[in-house]
Amino acid sequence: MNSTLNKLLSEENIHVNYEKLNDEILGCYYSIDGYELIVINENLLDNIKLHNCILAEEIGHYHTSVGDNGPYQVNSSADDLNHSRTENRALRYAVDILLPTEKLLALLCCNESINISNLSDYFEVTEDFILLKFYFMSKVKNVYHIIDDMYLTLCNLPNVYITKIIN
């Protein structure tokens, strides 16, 4: 398990159980009378990258879903929209915890030939999670300064460009 996630679980006194769940359910966060519990599908124990992503997202629910005790039942479009917002907040938290922007930019600075697969291996997350990080970064701004005359450009996702300004 990722050391950052381990530290968060310990600091927040969040318990993690691994259970046999339906294949479509990868994880759930519950808060019951002050007892914080994340249940993770035991099938993820063999996939460390996906495990880290799902666990981070469930920790994200702990930090961003005040008053939501899940699981959700969608009865209307308003319920569906609220659920989507809740998931989005938890995902944004998760990518920021596992892929801090400064650390990502520092890694890009030192490795001109780096690709999504390399980033996935380095951060021990899925490639989709890396792309999700770039998506959330693009919502803040489209261009990030890496170093000197190098910039990360996120204006044509899923394409990501590292450009060098030549004077």
Would you kindly provide a written description of the structure presented here, covering whatever features stand out?
A 3-stranded mixed β-sheet has the order 1-3-2. The chain has helices spanning 3-12, 48-64, 77-98, 101-110, 116-123, 127-140, and strands at 14-19, 27-32, 35-41, 143-147, 150-156, 159-164. It is built from 6 helices and 6 strands; from the N terminus they run H-E-E-E-H-H-H-H-H-E-E-E. Helix 2 packs across helix 3 (77-98). It is α+β, with helices and mostly antiparallel strands.
Topology:
Elements: H1 3-12, E1 14-19, E2 27-32, E3 35-41, H2 48-64, H3 77-98, H4 101-110, H5 116-123, H6 127-140, E4 143-147, E5 150-156, E6 159-164
Parallel strand pairs: 1-3
Antiparallel strand pairs: 2-3, 4-5, 5-6
Strands, count? 6
CATH topology of the largest domain: Arc Repressor Mutant, subunit A
Indicate the overall shape.
elongated
Count of runs of 4 or more consecutive helical residues:
6
Largest sheet: 3 strands, mixed
